Amino acid sequence: MFYFFFLRESHGDIVDHSHVSRLMKSFEKIRPTVPRYVVTWDVKKVLDFLSSWYPHGTLSLKQFTLKTCMLIALTSSDRAQTIQQMRVDQCVCSAKGVEFPIFSRLKTSRHLRRPRVVLCPKWPDPSLDVERCVTDYMARTLTLRLKVVRQGKPKPNQLFISYKSGLPVACNTISRWLKEVMSLSGIDTSYFTGHSTRVASVSKAKRRGANPNQIMAQGDWTNASTFNRHYDREILSPAVSALILGD
After folding, report:
1. Closest listed residue to residue 55, CA positions, set 133, 143, 134
2. Which residue in 90, 116, 173, 193 is a FRET match for 29, CA 20 to 30 A apart?
3. Each residue of 215-247: pLDDT tens digit?
């Protein structure tokens, strides 16, 4: 397709030819452009599962890491790249919760645009209190971070570190953690990837009454059409036929 647009710019008479036009239309029929997801999964399934991982003192460091990572992904609707760039030396405690300004360059970074701020909010339910999870996670990983420093390695200032080595993790690891939690929660990970947390969270927010401005701020979008085209999806629910056939 890139070559086609290049031809249009340099040889407009060629791409406007009837044969070329018919060829491109046939390509579209053979392999039409479709969105990655037609529907999305229900966030409640994952939240119910994460609620069962409580109290936190009974969890292994791996479980606590996965839970904290997923809660941040769902409540912030951020990409794995953004979550991976959260730093413990740049967090700020506020009345809303714990805030992590991201000064690193992200996919949505623009000149003179304000840095993205990831909020880990307070929540009345202690099993889903993101602020408490984050602060407890930082306290629990302090020993691992000190161990890395004693080994003569750079201080791991990233929020999320390996629960084995204590070293900072990559974006792919964040995505893998999210996908693992989804799988444990009963989500079909053969279809949904870790990135689908953005789709699921903002779709639920819209159905719970979030206005377009709130959704755009949540997803870090500058254009509402981005959400409408790529992220606004129906949540998977029992088919009407199943409701009719049921008791």
Report:
1. 133
2. 193
3. 777 777 666 666 556 555 666 555 544 444 445
